[in-house]
Amino acid sequence: MLVVLALMPLMALAEGGEAKKDQNFVVKGLMWVKTLIDSMAVANVDRSYIEQPKKPWAVEVRTSAGQSSLSMTADWSVEGVMDGNVTAKTDNGFSTSLGAWIGYRGYGFGLSKELTGGDGSTLSFGAMGGSFGINLRIGSYHSRMPDVTSYFSDNEGVTRDVTRMELDDPIRVRSLFLDGYYLFNGKHFSYAAAYDQSLIQRRSAGSFIAGLMYYHTSVAYDGDQNWPLLLLMNNVGKIKFTQASAGAGYAYNWVPARGLLVSAQVMPMLTFYNRMYTYFYETVNQKGQTVYEWFYDDAEDDDEPLVWHANEVEERKTSNRVNWNFDARLSVSYNWRSSYLRLYGHYNRFNYKNDEGDGRLSDWTVYASYGLRF
Which end of the chain has the smaller Cβ count within 10 Å, N or C? Predict the structure, then answer.
């Protein structure tokens, strides 16, 4: 026991030395990352075209306005008998949000929350270098009032009806969007100058650009109370689709006056990976009857309220379908010595198709950001 007590100060000293070494290792690692980021931002750039602000950190207040919309069409055609379909359109309305972002030399995180239009939120991450840009955006929203349009044509004529459904259990849309760009003229053109102001474009320049885009989304309306919508959509209650695209285009930074920058980018893309999972449901009541069995057997004879349950019964996977897509962006920004203001907009559209129907999810957003450098 006395030996242990005598060795305790030496053990504490050794542990302190190890902790100090670990701390120095962490500090050196962080300094190495900092130096790497600083050098990558201006590596091989022409300083007469691109300037690096002296203050590396930035914090932004962000607000946005936009709309995400989803259109789903179910095919009800019967060859030789009837041509028909049902389309459900839903969106998050004209949505506005407020959020914040913080970053170092273009590497940072942001979080925004919807103020009007729904209860959605968006988490974003960005990384900008001298010749590349990477963006990650994760978003979600709910919609309770889809517009349902039915169209049927047979020997007796054409019937078309539009109804707005009010759902107790909302349609849930979640998406992940990841894109990356490589600039062939990174010496004179700065992507970061247009979209996060970690660099400043001093003279006008353009660049051919190559890019990759990954998109994954899930749409679910499989709640028990949504059985009428499930029936209209041919018993489809949930879909998940994933797309990967590659493309090339052109971007241009126009500097009409010192501190002012207008940037535009257009890039057609080939969707080389395009897969979709469709989930089918069977709706039954507490008697074990499906909706069709209940309707034809004793729909008018029920003496008790029915409780419906949507049970998943099948998952189908579509084969890969090659398709086209495009990416378009526009930004206007102004730089002061220690602050900046940016207006930025983007538009994306994603299509899907399977044997039961097809659909389209589109998204446009306009951002306004005010940032302080420190």
Answer: N
